[in-house]
């Protein structure tokens, strides 16, 4: 099974999303939050194309947008919002319509870093998450521990799909309020 980078984000948010995507596929309802997020994302790309790299602490570099990457070694694929190529190295950039960097955002960025490494054959030491509402850039170091955990997540997604296991409700049930799969979880109010 080829895992999508977005699957890792979804798995950390709620593993049931993976279940409803791959094991028992259901029709997904696009929520207002998702529609707004998509519009904000496109607007951010248009703005980023005209901006300089100062917000990223870089003096030079070449930007690339909406780039598809695939790693045969990891059996992982994803479309990266932006990456920056500099003489110092390559940096993945993920745009988020959120006010803070969440754990699932972090590991999504690490997965993109792994894809960049495989594609270009050079290590990626860090990346950026751009928080759209705040117009803030956060640098995240890509540590060996984060790489290892991300690889474990890839395996966990594959394992969930292979076992066809219906996961428990996440501890933070407040996440269910805006979930597109909420109607399919009978044990969530």
Globally, the shape reads globular
DSSP strand (E) fraction? 15-25%
Tally of separate helices? 5
- From the structure provided, what is the oligomeric state, counting identical versus distinct chains? single chain
Radius of gyration: 17 Å
Mean pLDDT: 92
- Number of strand elements: 6
Structural class category: alpha/beta
Instruction: Please give the CATH class.
Output: Alpha Beta
Query: Helicity, in percent?
Result: 25-40%
Sequence of secondary-structure elements: EHHHEEEHEEH
Task: Give me the CATH architecture, please.
Answer: Alpha-Beta Complex
Structural notes for this entry:
This protein has 189 residues and is α/β, with parallel strands linked by helices. The chain has one domain (3-185): Lambda Exonuclease, Chain A (Alpha-Beta Complex), CATH 3.90.320. It is built from five helices and six strands, in the order E-H-H-H-E-E-E-H-E-E-H. It has helices spanning 5-13, 15-23, 32-48, 103-120, 144-163, and strands at 3-4, 62-71, 76-86, 89-96, 126-131, 136-141. Strands 1, 2, 3, 4, 5 and 6 form a six-stranded mixed sheet that branches. Strand 2 (62-71) and strand 3 (76-86) form a beta hairpin. Helix 1 (5-13) crosses helix 2 (15-23), helix 1 (5-13) packs antiparallel against helix 4 (103-120) and helix 2 packs across helix 5 (144-163). It is globular and about 50 Å long. The model has no long low-confidence stretch (mean pLDDT 92). Keywords: Antiviral defense, Exonuclease, Hydrolase, Iron, Iron-sulfur, Manganese, Metal-binding, Nuclease. GO terms for molecular function: exonuclease activity; iron-sulfur cluster binding; metal ion binding.
